């Protein structure tokens, strides 16, 4: 059996077999029907011509949108302009039909309704296209990092530590909540829990990634991470996938180079490998997205320091909602102004004030800023956040003391600085944000197969 | 900067820069030292020759195993037989040293002790080699399925359903366990929990995978799964990675072909891409592992039905601990006898009794067996389990009724059979078992970066 994706000129004239789902059917009075079949491998399906010489032609005529079938016949060049090939059926096996209760036969359906049927929505043009682009980006991620000799590392999902206190965490337990064991002080007795202590779902694999980078050189993670924030917005998921490379002997410059090269590789991959899907997004979701991605895959990615960025923003005549001064965290409006108005391309902002960044970022000689970097893109602002890590044990300990972080809680992490410490750097990218950027989809719930959000863990 | 992996004949004579960690040092009386440096990119490091013309030669002499450094110099062919190249240093930057408290300088350390320092153990020969092989297998997995047009699918980790009741699950919650909200009946009020109901960590992505296969054709997952079983053995992890492909229009035969091709591709990839690491495993961990993998990458993979397998076992003169008769679940001793003694190669056993298999497996016409398949390998027995899925709604409902499974709990899953149902199949592979098989490592805790087991979620 072939996939529609595998059809090409060489196969014209061959007898082939395809299988898929019926998208549309048009019955002609002349005793034949046009069936448009899609098998999920491409955006455009194939037109099948079935006529009344087929034994089961009357069954074929009774098929509804969404019916599943296998068709054998001759592949011919199509006389129509819409598609390159069509299939002249000489055998049609019907696997299953649908009925009036099938959601997806009633013309265009809005994304919100589709979300309620997340188990079926990949059968639509839009979500099918999104998931193919998502796959292209997943493949591009592995291909890119493997080609640069980064090892794919599987960092733990269940964790007993809280990386950088990056946000609300989900608790993981096997205790019977209706019969909780208690200590003498009437607190929950976590010694009796599965891991012998309180555990949570990870918010980042970075610290574990650093451990492997400081021994194997270059690693990247690509796995699920979690935030238990009660944010019911189109930008937040409770469960999402992150890409986190970490490299020994990379300083901030190499880290920024890596982030730029990775993003450009992704954009180029989508342009080259999801042409039909992108055309759909260009027409229906975001006008100009193809040329946007083409431009970005060749863009320079301007680099400026935070201090320079603040100066530019202060000098501009724009009245921002959040007033700008040195020390503030840049808001989305500032980030977009820099990328969209000033530089008209992605911008990598480096060396942020230490007070707005995490404890593990390397302190600069000015002792006011750290070697952080954010990669800002038009439309969405920050798409990547990263830094060179503090490799000096004493500096790191002083910083933790300042922030009242107990070194005991990070003793294994500090070992990486005690024994053969090396300069190293890394970054994190929220994979769904990247998929949104490459498809134009406005709600993050529509770019992950089964979204997890407050009050919703359906399917 | 180059990786040791990137060195080749063309670079002999070049001035290059490398960085890594000191594995051994030998000081000669003639005023020079041999430093063996490893950067994690390969098993064998590189020998650096540093002499007293270097400004910091006295510092170099004081370095301990595990120290980190960057070396620039000329790459030359090595006069020694041990390595192809060596580096004549004309500049050595010392990043960090170690001291007597560093675990990894005291000769060979057993795996149990290394596990206590999981954050450092990738710096050893053995665990470094394991993790490079693990990466080769991860890359092979993506490459294989992408080349067959399977889409990488990210199925949810947090779930409100329990696939096939496959085992004990971890609960996920944001409720404050010291102040649990209660219902009128004094039960925990899960309406107040984050997702508005009780949720757990997934044990398999299969059901979600089926949803996407029944629309997009071919998908594969590669993600973490969880078992809250209190099994403190060398074969069990609480958190492990699974590979689960699912394909529409695949019947059991195509499914078995896919499993065979995937495994052979993996074995071949390791042989071709981890030569040095395999040599180490062959010498130190499992004699003959290289020829084992070479043979298996060309093996036929015998296929027999469960009924045939039982007949062979019954006829054999071996006295098994678990007596064999039709209807029993095959035990490891039976599986190993079939692969090691009878067929001397992997065996795919199909069509198991329905009573020992899950509800979603397709019922055969005999109404006694289902289209299940287990792929058995020498030494380990089952490495893959899979099946063709029941696509007939009525048959599936009858089976669920028999097993007292409430169809309401699976209504979305049943929709896949209501609307355009198709024959489809898939399987699951425990990724760590595969890594064990390709390295010979006997304890599963040593083939995942940070193992999670009962009472242990360290790092």
UniProtKB/TrEMBL annotation, chains A, B:
Keywords: Aminoacyl-tRNA synthetase, ATP-binding, Cytoplasm, Ligase, Nucleotide-binding, Protein biosynthesis
Localization annotation: Cytoplasm
EC number: 6.1.1.22
Any one GO MF annotation of this record: asparagine-tRNA ligase activity
Main location group: cytoplasm
Catalytic activity as recorded in UniProt: tRNA(Asn) + L-asparagine + ATP = L-asparaginyl-tRNA(Asn) + AMP + diphosphate + H(+)
InterPro entries the record matches: Aa-tRNA-synt_II (IPR004364), aa-tRNA-synth_II (IPR006195), aa-tRNA-synth_II/BPL/LPL (IPR045864), Asn-tRNA-ligase (IPR004522), Asp/Asn-tRNA-synth_IIb (IPR002312), NA-bd_OB-fold (IPR012340), NA-bd_OB_tRNA (IPR004365)
Signal peptide region: none
Domain named Aminoacyl-transfer RNA synthetases class-II family profile: residues: 131-449
Gene3D superfamilies per record: Bira Bifunctional Protein, Domain 2 (3.30.930.10), Nucleic acid-binding proteins (2.40.50.140)
Family: Belongs to the class-II aminoacyl-tRNA synthetase family.
Subunit description: Homodimer.
Record-given protein name: Asparagine--tRNA ligase
Organism for this UniProt entry: Lentisphaera profundi
UniProt lineage: Bacteria, Pseudomonadati, Lentisphaerota, Lentisphaeria, Lentisphaerales
